[in-house]
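Need tokens for this chain, all 492 residues.
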Amino acid sequence: MRIQVEFSRACHPLENQLVKQVLEHASNRSISVYIVGGYVRDGIKPLGNASSGQSSIDSLKKRDVDFAVAGGSAFLFAKDLSNHLRGHFVALDETNDTARVVLDDGSILDFAGCEGGSIETDLKRRDFTVNALAWDPAFPNEVLDLCDGITDLKNKKIRAVSKQSFAQDPLRILRTFRFANQLNADIDSTTLIWVRELVDGLKTVAPERINYELFESLSGPAAGKLTDQLAETGVLEAIFPELVETRRVTANSYHHLGLFEHSTITVTELDGRMDALPEWLRESAARELSYGVSRLAATRLACILHDIGKPGTWEITPEGRHTFVAHDKLGAEMSVVIGDRMRWSRPVERLITRLVELHLRPGQLFHQGPPTARALNRFYRAVGDDFAELMMVAYADLGATRGAGLSGSNRDTLEAGLASLISGFENFVAEVRHQKPLLSGHDIMVLLELPSGPLVGEILKALEEARDLKEVEDRSQAEAFVRNLYAQKYSK
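Here are the structure tokens for all 492 residues:
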């Protein structure tokens, strides 16, 4: 079915000079080409409740276009076109007739042969109805829509074209949630049933492909809702089998939920807290951590994984008390293993592992009353640039912990303590972090006639702490402090 549509301003395919060059080249070789997928979907002027045209404008700026090719080889056409446009040819999969042309201005043109030989058959084999749209240059103001994708786009609904599409490429199971995030849409109930039935297929997908879809799903404002669905459908456990064991750990005096539910609801709890957090803290989390991964997306995954060490450390005392001694340390070790298996970039693995390892630290500061200035100083220095993200994990953990043992005044005290850590860190940064050191490592080596080594670092750290606490204020006092510390603690 062809449907009359209106494209957003500057988003009509014929307004794209690069598209016009591709069409002319195809016409000269008697090959039919169609634009499919995101470029068409995002270019259509918003309908009813559909999203704004901003994504279409962004898509146009990126100049990424997917073409379906009929009446010839997409692979050979792309190769010929790359020579014509003086671009770079990328052979994606000659057997499956897919190739890419990359131009010097950053434009990316993807070409794939029509499955089944026709554009109609090709569209019926695509992943979601909102992606099963094609623009035919012979009908420039219409879109070929055989799966009712325009209606789903209008109603903000992510619906799989068929159950078979998930079996053909199990990554589409996870892509369901990415598109729900990207288009701010709900997932069709039948599609969720198919996800549950075929979720084990994700275990066969390369981790690099999973990472993009997962972190993208965790990046938007509806991350909590999507995380709940990722948990309910078994997707999280298919990707992270470490979570399977968390289902064994039952609710207790502090936790009103079993451990699996406690872990997964943390993202929803964090979402509910975000607007109340200081702007500088939210801005820190929004920064890019690694290509395509924000610090916030990694933090949300750390929330989900923060207690993976508990099943391996779980004990119940004769009095019925549940204990998880050193589960933070075990969890950090497990996070490293997960990072290696998932082939996370080093920054992503480092942040998630640190957040899992440190997630108890904010609350522990208040276990025996208000922390001392020295304890706060050591905490701020130890956490450093990961402070914002750690506080997000702490708040998410607190929100997901509502047992009788953490209620009333106990809860109020911890809430006030976490808030004081945030205001205290702002003062710490303003007054302390950017001060020039009174002595360098080289100065200490000369002063104490020491070789380079860990001891020099320990002394420097002690000196920084003394300065933060205003026990040392100038160079002469620093030298005296270092000599005295070395004589009392290290000289023997």
